[in-house]
Amino acid sequence: MLAYAVKRIGLGLLILVLVMVAMYAAVFLVPGDPATVALGPRATPELKRLLIERMGLDLPVWWQIVEFFRNALTGNLGYDVWSNRPVSTLVMEALPNTLILGLTALAVALLIGVPLGCLSVMRRGTLADAVIGVLSVGVIAVPSFVVAIYSLLLFAVTLRWLPAIGAGETGDIVSQAKALVMPAAAIALGWIGYIARMVRASMMEVMGEPHIRTARSFGLPEWKIVSKYALRIAIIPTISLVAVGLGSILSSAVFVEAVFARPGIGKLITDAVNTRNYPVVMGTVLIMTAIYVSITIAADLLIARLDPRVRDVFRG
Amino acid sequence: MSGSLAASDLSVRYETPHGAVHALRHVDIEAHPGEVIGIVGESGCGKSTLVTALANLLPANARIDGSISYNGVDLAKLDAHRQRLLRGDEIALVSQDPMTAFNPVLTIGDQLVDFQHHRKDLGRAQKRSRIAAMLGRVGIADAERRMDCYPHELSGGMRQRVAIAAALLTDPGLLIADEPTTALDVTMEAQIIHLMRELRREYNGIIIVVSHHLGVIAELCDRVYVMYAGEVVEGGEVDAIFHDARHPYTQALLACDPARFHEKLERLPTIPGTPPNLTQPPSGCVYAPRCDRAFAPCGSVAPPLVKLSASHVARCHAVTP
Q1: Which of B88, B104, B152 sits opposite A218 (nearest CB)?
Q2: Is A224 in Cβ contact with B100 (below 8 Å)?
Q3: DSSP character string of A218-273
Q4: Membrane-spanning regions, if any (chain A) (predicted)?
Q5: How far is A300 from chain B (nearest CA, A)?
Q6: Nearest chain B Cα to A232, which residue?
Q7: Do B118 and A216 touch (CB under 8 A)?
Q8: B118 in contact with A at a CB cutoff of 8 Å?
Q9: Whole-angstrom Cα distance, residue A141 to residue A195?
């Protein structure tokens, strides 16, 4: 297990390096001079040169990458070109909002999606199963920004139940929670459908296995067979799906944060890209990739924890 | 508690999109406490459907006619909840394939604790000590440690022992072993048969052993039912079946058992032809198309159940008492 964890973490670090190399290559390949785009066509050559030096764009690309990682190892992700504030501070300010949003959405999706999938299996072939099936496909098909805009119109503009924008007053839990409801729901809705369908599909497969018949032959109640004997196996593909899906949850956070003008990583990246604020883009991408890679590793370790057969493969 | 079991005029059909499959037709069997009953026949003859019906584990598309009386209660007429309460309490099933019979992500001990869920009077620790004792009784050394193993950490033979232990833990009146040795190699098979012979001495409920292996049946059983194409074609004491078989199918089956050959043969004998399609069972004798003694009525008239002695019966036009 330890060797497996070390191997996965090593691979994760390699992925981080590759992503950053790709990012620098992209900046290098994008036509036009970032300084000109940022400062506008009427900037003086002196100002441009100053900015280019400040962003480190005069150095060879490979050297920029080495410098970036050398600084990153000491916790220095560079400085915002415009405000001169450390990128690490900007990211740390924005990150909690996004993480709370993403994790709330994920938790809601799991807490509703998994029981719905189980219910579908226990009531297979009935009206309840059919309704869950149709609704799941329905909500998967609706993009999160559409949900965001319509819920904004309904709950914030027409009914005035929930705040339209922002992340709530600092220190006021209730106002923060209220501000979280719509963005989280917008992201979670589609995932409820995904998870319910995924759980149902893998559960149906597991329910056909002989060990379920054994559990039935001992007269175990159906809810116990579903929740203990089947779910523990059926949840494994769902964990992989959710871990991979977290990337798309975080990217839908970009849209949703834009719609609700909610401070967060998504808004930070969008703004930084629009103003060609490369140090902020690079620092944010590094942190997001690191989070994403960590979650994937955590999911793999969790799967190894849940399934003793996987555990043994890596022990041997 | 143990009582007698009797299936009378039991028929099971599976409703499929391609029509109904009449897997079991007008089966009569009976079993009394202390008896070991063998059910033998080739693949697809309805053995598994019969025991699955007895254990109330038929799939949703199965339809039952006739009755299964156990201890004076008609199992076929119980609602799903009452059926579930009997399973794992009065009726226990030893599953067919020990390799896949247990949940792969739960320990043996965890599962066997759950399987004793009808025993509300016992705590977890008591259930675990019962498991340890029972595992020891079925010949598993180091039972305490084995309980914390996952199924894949045990060998096939050991898993089959655990499956038998699991069934015995529930102290059932009716123990059904569906092909208990089919998935095992010959050495393991001999060990499991030996174990079951020992167990039957201390057990006073009904044991039903299903096998297509004649040797297993001969070793373990008091009485045998021979099944063909969803019908019981012959039934009787194990001696009568093995030494005085009257139905042409039973005779042909015995003639194909490699264990009974004295000299080495170039080719193993087989029964020519294939069993009938059970979506449209024949109107006459089900075995007639493959039977070398078939005559005029066999193709059109269903043969009666001929009583040959107190317990020996055969369903054939060609036999006479």
Answers
A1: B88
A2: no
A3: TT--HHHIIIIIIHHHHHHHHHHHHHHHHHHHHHHHHHHHHHTT--SHHHHHHHHH
A4: 9-30, 99-119, 131-157, 177-196, 233-260, 280-303
A5: 16
A6: B105
A7: no
A8: yes
A9: 14
Record: contact A211-B103, CB cut-off 8 A: yes
Average pLDDT, chain B: 87
Closest chain A residue to B150 measured between Cα atoms? A308
Residue-level pLDDT at B1: 45
| B128 to A19, A230, B98, B105, B121: CA distances (angstroms) | 52, 23, 21, 19, 13
B237-294 tens-digit pLDDT = 999 999 999 999 999 888 888 777 777 777 888 888 888 888 888 888 888 888 888 8
Q: Does A218 touch chain B (CB under 8 A)?
A: yes
Residue of B90, B99, B103, B153 to mutate for A, most A C-beta atoms under 10 A: B103
A292 touches chain B (CB under 8 A): no
What is this model's ipTM? 0.84
Q: Who has greater pLDDT, A30 or B300? A: B300
All domains of chain B in start order, with CATH: 5-90+172-315 (3.40.50.300), 102-171 (no CATH)
Strands B223-228 and B36-40: parallel
- Interface check for B85 against chain A (CB to CB < 8 A): the answer is yes
C-alpha dihedral (A8, A11, A13, A17), degrees to nearest 10: -160
- Stretch B133-161: mean pLDDT, rounded? 88
Packing angle, helices A231-259 and A265-274, rounded to 10 = 50
| Chain A residues lying within 8 Å of B85, measured CB to CB | 219
Residue A307 pLDDT > 90, yes or no?
no
Q: What is the nearest CA distance from A197 to chain B, expressed in angstroms?
A: 22
- Three-class DSSP category at B66: strand
Partner B contacted by A316 (CB < 8 A): no
Closest CA–CA distance from residue B22 to any residue of chain A (Å): 22
Q: A-contacting residues of B 156-185, CB under 8 Å?
A: 163, 166, 170
Average pLDDT, chain A: 82
DSSP class of residue B276 equals P
User: How does pLDDT run across B293-319, given as a tens digit for each residue?
Assistant: 888 888 888 898 899 988 899 999 988
Torsion of CA A236, A238, A240, A243, to 10 degrees: -130
Residue A194 C-alpha from the chain's centroid: 15
pLDDT confidence of residue B126:
92
Name the pLDDT band for B2 (thresholds 50, 70, 90).
low
Q: What is the pLDDT of residues B168-205, one digit of tens each?
A: 888 888 999 888 887 777 887 888 888 888 888 888 88
- Which residues in chain B have Cβ-Cβ distances shorter than 8 Å to A225? none
Exposure string over B79-107, b if 16+ CB within 10 A, otherwise e: eeeebbebbbbbbbbbbbbbebbbbebbb
A–B CB contacts, 8 A cutoff, strictly below: 77
Question: Distance from B12 to chain A by nearest Cα, in Å?
Answer: 19
Question: Tens of pLDDT along A66-93?
Answer: 888 888 888 788 888 778 888 888 888 8
Buried b (16+ CB within 10 A) or exposed e, A7-32: ebeeebeeebeebbeebbeebeeeee
Q: How far is A244 from chain B (nearest CA, A)?
A: 23
Structure tokens at A128: 């309840």
